[in-house]
From TrEMBL:
It comes from Rheinheimera tilapiae. Gene3D superfamilies: Winged helix-like DNA-binding domain superfamily/Winged helix DNA-binding domain (1.10.10.10). SMART domains: HTH_LUXR. This is Helix-turn-helix transcriptional regulator. The keyword Transmembrane helix applies.
């Protein structure tokens, strides 16, 4: 339920409580029988319970939202710290990758496509970013694999990234 809907419901229940309270005061002063007062009083109590429930839910929702905001801020800060700490390494890696792409004899367009492939972008996404057709991106990626002697995107990624990951013990 959205916040506006909660407030409308809360105000409606509050109005019901007020109307029932006024009616109970009027009925009591006029000597209305006890069961009638108990029934109307029960309706007012139920409306009050509804108000308390909505307020409780609202406070819980605000608390959960605050917790999520704090977690998000912490993750954002951790991400920014990682980027700042690894920036020099990543810049060096980028230079080294570009040098290898030059060594393979890739054109500037093919080097750009190679970087996008390493970032995990689809051919359609690459074509869109470069304002070319998907067919052009496909032809350029095929040229990259041919010039590098690699058999596709996974081998291209592994060529540059395999040594960045810690070795795993295959027996365990």
């Amino acid at each position: 339920m959205q916040t506006n809907e909660r407030w409308v419901l809360l105000l409606t229940l509050l109005l019901i409580v007020l109307v029932v309270a006024v009616d109970l005061i009027t009925d009591t002063s006029q000597g209305v029988i006890l069961w009638h007062i108990l029934v109307e009083g029960s309706a007012g109590v139920l409306a009050l319970v509804g108000i308390l429930y909505l307020l409780h839910q609202q406070f819980q929702l605000k608390g959960a939202l605050q917790t999520e905001r704090q977690l998000s801020a912490a993750w954002q800060q951790e991400s920014e710290q990682w980027r700042a700490q690894s920036k020099a390494y990543l810049a060096g890696l980028s230079v080294m990758i570009d040098q290898q792409l030059h060594a393979w004899g890739l054109t500037p367009s093919e080097r750009e496509v190679a970087f996008f492939l390493l970032k995990g972008m689809s051919l359609k996404g690459i074509a869109s970013l470069r304002n070319t057709s998907e067919k052009t991106a496909r032809v350029q990626s095929t040229a990259i694999y041919a010039k590098s002697g690699l058999n596709g995107r996974s081998e291209l990624s592994a060529f540059f990234l395999e040594d960045l990951l810690p070795e795993t013990d295959a027996g365990h």
